[in-house]
Write a structure and sequence with these properties.
The complex is a heterotetramer, with two copies of chain A and two copies of chain B. By secondary structure, chain A is α/β, with parallel strands linked by helices. Chain B is an alpha/beta fold. The two termini of chain B are 29 Å apart. Chain B is globular. In chain B, helix 1 packs across helix 2 and helix 2 crosses helix 7. Classes of the chains: A alpha/beta, B alpha/beta. Chains A and B meet through strand 6, helix 4, helix 5 and helix 7 of A and helix 3, strand 9 and helix 4 of B.
């Protein structure tokens, strides 16, 4: 049995500038943020990121100047950050290439990649400007070998005469996930909502998984119905407790409302963003220092999920 | 018995909740839609099943989620799935009775914009978060209910970018575009409830909230709206307000947003 | 909460002659055979059955004269019945309409139905006679409102120029499943392989589930990651222990090699089939009498799954 | 040490097992393919992962399954999935290194028939079970290994019905048809092992089993086959036979079929 265990720094070293990425999670949940901070520290550039509903994990990567293009459906952290601040600023200032799809369309695109299909059909996006207006110009699509030849194609179904939208497959160089449990051999256990992690992983050439807990392969084989990604599709496993902070991990800890608001407020200005990066990314050398910087044991304890809930029902979320 | 006073947010949520019938499958977007669905479940629609695009299906939530991906959406859930199952099997599979949505702009025919403000999509004045599941819910639910603050700048004749299809340009334009779901049934705002005529899909004011008038609505609406049949919205009951404040959002996350 | 509990006879009464059916399970596993025997007793006719890899459950339905047309990939019970005998005889004598697809293509067709799509793309069946030769004539397709307008369509992908096969969606009137556990409200728990049960159920207008164990809704809600069919898509729940016999149910009991061979040998001739039907279908009034007829407590005890295996590791399968 | 005698079934399974390299992902069809994969896992390929179309992924089987849907395929499995995941994500997703198949007829270019015998598909002389996953594995694995009893009637120039694509009509015809996977690498029979030339895809006898001769092979093959380079298959080792008989199929379900 292959041992796929890696240290966080070594995992980040595998991920080259210019790579295309899929990042697991959903808005404020289960993003591999520790790994993303390490990528920022290692000064990666020019990523193309495909996402459905991303949160501040991708916003931070954009703010740190690591991203060339985003194709996505949504960037926000719920009410804590109704518009992801760098996403907004970088697009308004023309510094970021972007393409808009709906969540169902991005889901369809990743699913096509996972299934080895060149496209996927959807009934969504009909009648919307997402089919009428492109974020990417035809020239930039031609220039960019990563980009699909066009955004979507409208077809008449040969069986029913209904209109169907075809969206192009996504296959990324890397998929980065954060999950509850993983084994050194690459078995992965997701608890709670799956989001789109399974399809993102299978649409990727290499999958790197950070996890809250490292467990035996045997333990995960005891309930094979709950394993949804074949271990032969997983290439690296990194043990990173609190690896999704400031986002939440079902059954482990809640999102951190204080930090998410601090992030959102900081990132609304360039200066604020620079100070945030200095304090929480460049100024900390590893995950342990980061956890100290965000409040250490006391703060983390306050986020811990309560048994039977999966989150902390006592968490104060209305931040003054 | 003392009648409780309500805020404009509260009556909006209450009026939205009343659009849900018992036993329906409700797809709820982030924000006030969640409050509306949770309130309905505790009032007249105890058997409605709520579905969230991030993966929670038919939960019995105890605590208000801050977004549709929140772990709180999973409490007591019948299924913990993901985007794949919810969008493909439940939404596009035709199993959602009513989709609950918000939007930054909403136009005459109930089309929504949550992508970008300004005339140039590629160089917007304000870049918004994007569709998320909004376009999908708008296209694929049997009907939708839209919740929005009633301000003139949010209610233009035509949205700057059509993220989510309403009745498109009215008439049978939605059907002609091949969109399978049923379109907006109601827009619940801080001032009243807008509905649409059956054939023309022209908007009309169905009701105005206590304290508001048809004139207020006309003044805050950027398109022509027929207010001739509008009646006053029946005020939130004490029960509705108590449950909303004490059970659904005791922290005041959205109600004191 | 709606109570969807039904008796077996009442469940069968809902299923009309002429209906289109999807039947859960796979070759020798987890078919709703008790319900199918009840349909035969109730003299249903003219079913159109869509299947992937079916076993003797569908073969029996064909033999009893209940089936007008089958679209499927495979009918056999492994080495116990390498060719389903009625499937073979009815086709060779021209008494059954049929259409051949591969398993992946039937999977794709059910998936399209489950997803509300009019078709599904696949890279399979290219270069095969399944794309060249139709079982159904164009006239019989035209006559039959249930049939797709054509078997499959070859298209050039507009993004990649690759060849893609589009197969038409299946939506059935009824999906009949047998599962390990279900609740009166319609929650369903499948243990072990899912086969295609989830997609078949979601591609159907009405879903009737027979189960080994009836459990509380609460019990199934404790592990929501393992529930894969929304209860609002399930319309009837019937409690039928040993409801899949002679097929196996993972964690409950094994397939019955003696009975499967007895079936296969009987069904190889018309006379034998008549005798089998008299003895095991028409001659038994309910599931309890059937279980007695196939060997009663002693035989069923010998099939019971052992803990930690999901099957009976001591079962003698080489029948003399 | 005494050298154990082997049956034609046994040498076929042993030769097939040797086609699996350690660490590969193997898709196994019902029957002898399962024996081959289980034997390989216990001999030279302990880290190969076996995948079954009914849903079992990477098991550590203790007991021989009678078909690919058997619960025995699940023992120690990494995943209990279903047709959807296995066909879409694993097979069509390009993750299967080698597919193991049987067939009632196999022709010159390794095309298989498991649908119907006779000239008229709609009114066949013998109706067979159908493709099952055979067409899919043949189209979508990186390579396939076919296991078949070597009899003239089973090895015609052209199959009556092409259920599963081999090299079609030779040359680059498979590629031209748009089939993504890599085609048959070997046909392991009761008499020997047939392989295919790189460009022309013409069959040739790579080896004949002990006790058989190239002449036997030619006599039992309905198409022309080049036997000029054939060598004798190395006999099954005692280890291979012991494991096959005592561990893989102690009941003799397939070996004494």
């Amino acid at each position: 049995m292959q041992n796929k265990l890696l240290e966080l720094t070594a995992a980040a070293q595998q991920i080259n500038s210019g790579a295309s990425l899929a990042i697991g999670g959903f808005t404020s949940q289960r993003h591999p943020t520790a790994l993303l901070r390490e990528l920022i520290r290692q000064k990666r550039k020019d990523f193309v990121v495909y996402a459905h509903s991303a949160g501040s994990e991708l916003d931070l990567l954009i703010g740190a100047g690591c991203v060339r293009r985003v194709e996505a459906a949504y960037l926000a952290d719920g009410v804590l950050a109704p518009i992801a601040p760098n996403w907004r600023r970088f697009i308004e200032s023309g510094e970021l290439e972007f393409e808009d799809y709906s969540n169902a369309a991005m889901m369809a695109r990743f699913t096509a990649g996972a299934m080895g299909l060149p496209f996927f059909p959807t009934l969504s996006m009909l009648g919307t400007d997402m089919l009428e207006q492109d974020g990417l110009s035809p020239e930039s699509r031609e220039r960019d070998p990563e980009a699909a030849v066009c955004k979507a194609v409208l077809m008449d179904c040969p069986f029913s005469k209904r209109k169907v939208v075809l969206v192009p497959a996504i296959t990324t160089d890397f998929c980065l996930l954060h999950v509850q449990k993983a084994s050194p051999a690459g078995l992965v256990r997701i608890e709670g909502q799956e989001f789109l992690d399974v399809q993102m992983a299978l649409a990727s050439r290499r999958v790197i998984v950070t996890c809250e807990e490292l467990v035996d392969d045997e333990e995960l084989r005891r309930e094979p119905e709950r394993n949804r990604i074949p271990s032969f599709a997983v290439h690296g496993v990194v043990h990173v407790p609190f690896g999704a902070h400031p986002h939440g991990v079902h059954n482990y800890y809640d999102y951190d409302p204080d930090h998410l608001i601090l992030y959102n407020n900081s990132a609304e200005t360039e200066d604020g963003l620079v100070r945030y990066l200095d304090r929480f990314v460049y100024g900390v050398e590893d995950q342990a220092s980061y956890l100290n910087a965000v409040g250490g044991r006391v703060q983390l304890e306050a986020l811990k999920a309560h048994s039977g809930f999966g989150y902390n029902p006592k968490l104060r979320r209305r931040v003054a | 018995m003392k009648i409780l006073q309500h805020s404009t947010t509260e009556i909006m949520v209450v009026a939205a909740a009343r659009e849900i019938a018992d036993g329906e499958v409700v797809f709820a977007g982030t924000g006030l839609p969640i409050l509306g669905a949770m309130l309905a479940q505790r009032m007249h629609a105890p058997n409605c099943d709520i579905v969230f695009e991030a993966g929670a299906v038919a939960p019995r939530m105890l605590h208000l989620p801050m977004s549709v991906g929140d772990s709180r959406t999973l409490f007591g859930a019948a299924q913990a799935a993901g985007l794949f199952d919810v969008f493909n099997y439940i939404l596009q599979g035709g199993r959602v009775d009513v989709g609950f949505l918000g939007g930054a702009q909403i136009d005459r025919y109930g089309n929504l914009n949550s992508t970008a403000l300004g005339p140039d999509y590629r160089h917007p004045k304000v870049r918004l978060p994007g569709s998320g599941g909004s376009a999908d819910v708008s296209a694929l639910s049997s009907r939708t209910v839209i919740i929005a603050r009633h301000e003139k700048r949010r209610f233009p004749e035509r949205v700057d970018y059509r993220t989510s299809p309403g009745w498109l340009v009215g008439g049978n334009s939605r059907e002609r575009a091949g969109i399978p779901g049923g379109g907006p049934a109601a827009v619940v705002t801080t001032l009243g409830v807008i509905k649409y005529r059956p054939i023309t899909r022209e908007p009309y004011l169905a009701s105005y909230h206590p304290g508001a008038t048809p004139l207020n609505v006309k003044a805050e609406t950027g398109f022509e709206i027929d207010c001739s049949e509008a009646v006053e919205t029946s005020a939130p009951s004490n029960d509705e307000l108590e449950i909303l404040r004490r059970v659904v959002d005791p922290e005041g996350i959205f109600l004191r947003g």
